[in-house]
Amino acid sequence: MSEIAPPRTTDPRAFGRVAVLMGGTSAEREVSLDSGRNVLEALQSRGVDAHAVDGIPALVDALVHGKFDRVFNILHGNKGGGEDGVLQGLLEAFEVPYTGCGVLASALTMDKIRTKQVWLSAGLPTPRFVRLAPGADVRAAALELGLPVFVKPSSEGSSVGVARVTDEAGIEEAIRVAAAYSGEMLMEQMVVGDELTVGILGEVALPSIRIVPKGEWYDYNAKYIAEDTQYLCPGLDGAGEDAIRALALAAFRAAGCTGWGRVDVMRDRASGQLTLLEVNTAPGMTSHSLVPKAARELGIGFEDLCWRILEQTLPATGGEARA
Questions:
Q1: Annotation marks residue 172 as catalytic
Q2: Annotated catalytic residue, options 262, 267, 289, 308
Q3: Catalytic residue among 154, 278, 289, 308, which?
Q4: What are phi and psi of 242, to 5 degrees?
Q5: Do 82 and 28 contact (CB within 8 A), yes or no?
Q6: Strand 70-73 and strand 17-22: pairing?
């Protein structure tokens, strides 16, 4: 695996005035605010002239008046979040450098169904799935795909609006969840086994993390509230660890992703096969978040991680920064 390169600069003045974009109006607002406060404190502790900005409208007003030189995007989700390509297109128009993926990759990976279609076209493994259009027959789809399954919005994150269906009785809950969303739903065959995630920093896949929740599965509560979820890092050993990191990096690149992010993976308990679930292009930076945990395994503390992510907005050697 590639090694993490040393920091490109030690001078906080290289970044100019930085907007730490957080909050917003998506379903993940509270998690984003938590992430944003942590990032803001980390950057300020290193001398960066960083300031909190809550949501896209406030950012637009600031950019119109030329208040910021670059943006550390820690908005989560879509529809007022910063992971669906809308914010990225806005910043491209303003010619303001920003952290994370560009327009196309952000829009693609916010849509779990289209991401899976790209992976399949690239020969990368993902669990069997069905696209549920609004009003689709959830019961028929579940029985055709074969239980157990997960039903989730195609374009939400953080386990928002997820139904876990293990028997026919659970289909009613899936129908209720599907009815609460106006967009497409993803029905995905459940992989029984280990849930893992791999952070990406530049061209490097960080050590994997195996997630062991106290309950039956890794839901919103286990992610952000519970204190008894176990995180084992690295999640695998030897060749298995090499394989999952290589797969995650291939999945990240296939989706056109750059900068930093996180790829979620399942390992089948019986066969050991790895399958891809989704990409997160603006991962959480809370006390429970996974990319910081993985970075620490390589000796990269939280402040250094935030610095390195922000560094990705600086001009490349011999070229211009991507706005």
A1: no
A2: 262
A3: 278
A4: -60, -40
A5: no
A6: parallel
